[in-house]
Amino acid sequence: MSIENISLSGKKVDVSENKMTFLEKLYLINIVKGMMVTIKHMFMRPATVKYPEQTREFSPVYRGRHTLMRDDEGRERCTACGLCALSCPAEAITMKAAERKPEEKHLYREEKYAEIYEINMLRCIFCGLCEEACPKEAIYLTKSKALVFSDYDRTDFIYGKDRLVMPLEQAIRNTKVIS
Amino acid sequence: MSETFIIDKMVIIVIVFAITMLMAMYATLAERKIAAWMQDRIGPNRAGKGGILQPLADGLKLFSKEEFIPNTPNRFLFILGPGISMTVALATSAVIPWGDKLIIGGREVILQATDIDVSILFILAILSVGVYGIIIGGWASNNKYSLMGAMRAGSQMISYELAMGLSIISIVMMSGTLSLKEIAVQQAGMNWNLFYQPLAFIIFLVCSFAETNRAPFDMSEGEHELVGGYNLEYSSMKMGFYLFAEYAAMFISSAILAVMFLGAYNYPGMEWAIENWGVNAANIIGVGVLFLKIFFFIFLYMWVRWTIPRFRYDQIMNLGWKVLIPLSIVNIVITAAVILM
Asked: Hey, how many other C-beta atoms are within 10 angstroms of the C-beta on A131?
């Protein structure tokens, strides 16, 4: 180990001093070898996923678009308690509570419900803390497996209840499966 | 010069021009598709079925960009640069023999735009003027980086022209003529020049890579080294012309390679086809065979581009002056010795 081989970090540095042979200097053979590799790859199957005709699978815990769940009688679970808005690190959730009228007993579970519930998808970081914080198991990110698509206007990214609540047909389907 | 002669030639000129433009256009698509297949992906396949209309989409995109002329005192030269590149790329297609002859209505139509006695000299001369297109583009851009890129590209092109000319001399010595038509005629059957002059073929192939500024010799367009090179300040259709001229030059170089070394429109069994199917059918097959050879060379250009990393500038100069020129001179001497014996 001479002075040239010691590196400052302490590792032994050894560089090979082999000169190129004449055939290697000619480079034509190496070019041909490289071209053989390239042509072999040309006939291999491509690794492309042809989106949007084909999509990749999501894992079971994939956090996508939010869904406000309904229970097995079709009533909305959310009671506008505000714990999700409190726990959101990006302050993306806003809501306005309202009192349930006697004729709306089949729509909402408890006397307090969320009249306006908005999530600003541009602020949301899809962390799932709202899902963990909800005491009524009302908001889930892992159920919809849907993406939030791109759009042209900022105001179109504030999703209201019309886009967030689970559709009634889906609740009926879920109930049929359980019972 | 009879009227039918003029009409024949005009039709052939228009057809050759159209074919060159069409081939260059679809060479851009072929480049992207072949590059994609070699890299385990699929190329553009959204414009039209399987991406067929992609060149039109590219052309439309280039047209719709903003035309920008930088603050340069040479406005005329700035606009002239891409024009020279494109003219040179298209002018060499005038002397290539696309086929032997067709007999239409009792008279012979030679499938070549013009048959001058000094075709090879004409091609070399026009290629030398092609250097101007790049250097003028780099100079008129009023930009240090463009100028450096243009200087490098220009010096690379003139260095490899020498070796190209010297390697052609051995073919000329063997054929005894400078006319491309005669060289094509002398390669009848399987008498291709490739088997008699392999070293000249390799030298000419390497030089044509360097002349068209094609990888691995695309130092001048190296995006990472020179921020774009000589076409840095160009936008919209002028840039489109530069890029298009490169593909047209690639097509023409493939054509010249195919004519001089791979026997032009000759294929084994041509005499049999002339006797049994007539002259017209045999020669049309000959034109198809020539295009097959041209496509093979275009594929070779793209194959090499996506295999080898770019050469350094001093390596390019070293190769051109210190290796290829002595090799081609040695080739001339050997050819002369063999001819004398």
From this structure: 19
Assigned domain for A10 exists: no
CA distances from B100 to B8, B103, B108 (A): 15, 10, 10
CATH number at residue A164: 3.30.70.3270
Structural domain includes residue A136: yes
Instruction: Identify the sign of the CA torsion B97, B100, B102, B108.
Output: positive
Is B309's Cβ below 8 Å from some Cβ in A?
Answer: no
What the block records as the tokens of A69 is 């769940």
Residue B184 has pLDDT above 90, yes or no: no
Q: Nearest by CB to A48, which of B41, B306, B308?
A: B41
- Secondary structure of chain B: what % helix, strand, coil (to 5)? 70, 0, 25
The full DSSP string for A60-85 is: TT---S-EE-B-TTS-B------HHH
Inter-chain residue contact A35 with B304, CB threshold 8 Å:
yes
Residues B39, A41: C-beta atoms closer than 8 Å: yes
pLDDT digits (tens, 9 = 90+) for A58-113: 899 999 999 998 888 888 999 999 999 999 999 999 999 999 999 988 889 899 99
Helix H, strand E, coil C: the string for B185-251 is HHCCCCCCHHHHCHHHHHHHHHHHHHHCCCCCCCHHHCHHHHCCHHHCCCCHHHHHHHHHHHHHHHH
- Which residues are within 8 A (CB) of B186 and not within 5 positions of it... i.e. 6 or more apart? B175
Pairwise CB contact (< 8 Å): B307 & A47 = no
A132: containing domain: 67-178
Closest CA to B294 of B38, B20, B92: B20
Distance from CA of B180 to the nearest CA of A (A): 29
Domain ranges of chain B: 3-340
pLDDT band for B65, please (50, 70, 90 cuts).
Answer: confident
pLDDT digits (tens, 9 = 90+) for B293-337: 999 999 999 999 999 888 888 888 999 999 999 999 999 999 999
Nearest chain B Cα distance for residue A22, angstroms: 13
Decide if A159 is inside a domain: yes
Give the closest residue to B252 by CA, choosing from B298, B300, B217: B298
H and E: helices and strands count for chain B: 14, 2
Domain count within chain A: 1
Q: Are B42 and A46 a contacting pair at CB < 8 A?
A: yes
CA distance A41 to A34: 11
Higher-confidence residue of A166 and A175: namely A166
Nearest CA of chain B to the CA of A21: how many Å?
Answer: 16
Is A44 a domain residue?
Answer: no
